[in-house]
């Protein structure tokens, strides 16, 4: 149905685009190994609707965020939006003339609104005013943006922005429920201070977050396309008292690299992360947890419908059996902590009746391969990636050395950056998973051995 390779308005502004080519350059990021990564949003055609709200000024930054990921952005403004921001700003940032009028004789000579509706691979309305949500839910076609939302077959996402009382109004609540039921993605709104001076729910999400969420909505290609991958990463913290905890040195970098690689391979990725300070890979949905208990709870919530589970988290094995309710005072010369076992997140998932393809990680300081193989067998895993940890090894480092084990096979991935190893690992996981579906896992393992 998406007909036009050259979009509406394209060519009109080519001089502008050439002049600004450095600023508007498509996103080809360095992979770290000299291999360029094409961002998954590269070349995607996004129609950005801007409606009349104070947050319209933030949409100028949103255009930049989408463009720096390589998307083509066509802005359509409502009449009210133009009261807040001039179209020239959006034209300059998007590199395309802004469309605003339904009654545009020149554009409509070629049925411009239908052409626009077909061109879009995603329609994103940000900010979406209360009035626009009402018109969208009512199926109105009284201006260009509303008309092309009716005429498009592309997915639609809206980022509402309004005063908290408008957002909580029963009419808005009902309109949003109707839109959700029809498959419109509602991004936000966030809570916080509002332009009107009130505090509450109704702020538009920040442009960076909207761009990340849009990333998730766009179709991907790759060996894990259409697959849902659940990944755990980072350490857990086990509480001693309200101000102290027991944890470990995991930085979460390996798990986050695996999440990025799985996303690049086309998967929908959910990342359950312990306390880390690593940026969330673009297009990955992150769920933050703290303890082994909360990690298990999050994993059990998310595992339904997951095709692949990859456990990279360094979950604490033991925790204080009786965490204190108040801060322990410095009185005695020694302090005994009675420790108990934490739940085993990996083993719990692997033991489920309808389980995903399960991949574990083994962080060992000695007998790395033997210990990893024992864990593979004991926990009945499909695959395990073994790495040697210790002082100046793996923790907080950019590099790692991985050995991948199956029941009857092994593959040494050698030394490399965590991201390059993650990509190789995800490639092997995708192959093994595909073979497991066909019941031919053994042949893949034989290939891996070769
Ligand atoms: C100064 C000012 C600020 C406004 N801010 C918002 C807002 O943040 N959210 C909203 O839903 N409406 C807001 N409105 C009301 C909308 O602009 C109004 O409902 C308009 O008809 C929306 O038209 P549109 O949806 O076609 O863009 C504001 C109006 C004014 C005058």
Structure commentary:
The protein has about 450 residues and is of the alpha/beta class. The protein has 2 domains: about 15-215, 3-Layer(aba) Sandwich (Rossmann fold); about 230-450, CoaB-like (Rossmann fold), CATH 3.40.50. Helix content is about 35%, strand content about 25%. The protein is built from 17 helices and 21 strands. It has helices spanning about 15-20, 60-70, 80-85, 85-95, 105-110, 110-120, 130-135, 145-150, 165-170, 170-180, 205-215, 255-265, 290-300, 345-350, 370-380, 420-435, 440-450; strands at about 30, 35-40, 45-50, 70-75, 120-130, 155-160, 185, 190-195, 200-205, 230-235, 240, 245, 270-275, 285-290, 310, 320, 340, 355-365, 385-390, 400-405, 410-415. Strands 14-13-10-15-18-19-20-21 form an 8-stranded mixed β-sheet, with helices on both faces. A 5-stranded parallel β-sheet has the order 4-3-5-6-7, with helices on both faces. Helix 12 (about 255-265) packs across helix 16 and helix 16 (about 420-435) runs antiparallel to helix 17 (about 440-450). The longest helix is centred in the last third of the chain and has 20 residues, at about 420-435. The protein is globular and about 75 Å long. Mean pLDDT is about 85; it is low at about 1-35 and about 440-445. It binds flavin mononucleotide.
């Amino acid at each position: 149905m998406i007909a036009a390779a050259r979009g509406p308005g394209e060519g009109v502004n080519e001089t502008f685009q050439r002049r600004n080519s450095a600023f508007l350059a498509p996103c080809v990021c360095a992979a770290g190994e000299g291999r360029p990564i094409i961002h998954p949003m590269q070349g995607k055609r996004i129609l950005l609707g801007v409606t009349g709200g104070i947050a319209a000024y933030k949409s100028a930054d949103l255009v930049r965020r989408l463009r720096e990921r390589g998307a083509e952005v066509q802005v359509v403004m409502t009449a009210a939006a133009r009261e807040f921001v001039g179209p020239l700003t959006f034209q300059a940032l998007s590199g395309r003339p802004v469309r605003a009028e339904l009654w545009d004789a020149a554009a409509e000579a070629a049925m411009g609104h239908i052409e626009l509706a077909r061109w879009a691979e995603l329609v994103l309305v940000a900010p979406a005013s209360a009035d626009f949500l009402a018109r969208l839910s009512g199926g109105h076609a009284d201006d260009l943006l509303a008309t092309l939302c009716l005429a498009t077959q592309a997915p639609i996402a809206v980022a509402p922005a309004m005063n908290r009382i408008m957002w909580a109004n029963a009419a808005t609540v009902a309109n949003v429920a109707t839109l959700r039921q029809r498959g419109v993605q509602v991004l936000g709104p966030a809570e916080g201070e509002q332009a009107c001076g009130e505090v509450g729910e109704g702020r538009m999400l920040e442009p960076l977050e909207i761009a990340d969420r849009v990333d998730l909505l766009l179709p991907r290609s790759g060996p894990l396309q259409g697959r849902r991958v659940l990944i755990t990463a980072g350490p857990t913290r086990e509480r001693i008292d309200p101000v102290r905890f027991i944890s470990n040195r995991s930085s979460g970098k390996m798990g986050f690299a695996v999440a990025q690689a799985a996303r690049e391979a086309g998967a929908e990725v959910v990342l359950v992360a312990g306390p880390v300070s690593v940026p969330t890979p673009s297009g990955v949905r992150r769920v933050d947890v703290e303890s082994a208990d909360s990690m298990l709870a999050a994993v059990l919530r998310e595992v339904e419908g997951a095709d692949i589970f990859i456990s990279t988290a360094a979950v604490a094995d033991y925790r204080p059996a009786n965490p204190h309710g108040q801060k322990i005072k410095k009185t005695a010369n020694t302090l005994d902590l009675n420790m108990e076992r934490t739940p085993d997140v990996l083993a719990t998932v692997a033991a489920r009746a309808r389980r995903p393809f399960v991949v574990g990680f083994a962080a060992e300081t000695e007998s790395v391969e033997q210990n990893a193989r024992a864990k593979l067998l004991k926990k009945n895993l499909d695959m395990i990636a073994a790495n040697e940890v210790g002082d100046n090894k793996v923790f907080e480092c950019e590099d790692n050395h991985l050995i991948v084990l199956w029941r009857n096979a092994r593959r040494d991935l050698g030394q490399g950056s965590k991201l390059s190893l993650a990509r190789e690992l995800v490639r092997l996981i995708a192959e093994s998973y595909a073979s497991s579906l066909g019941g031919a896992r053994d042949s893949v393992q034989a290939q891996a051995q070769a």
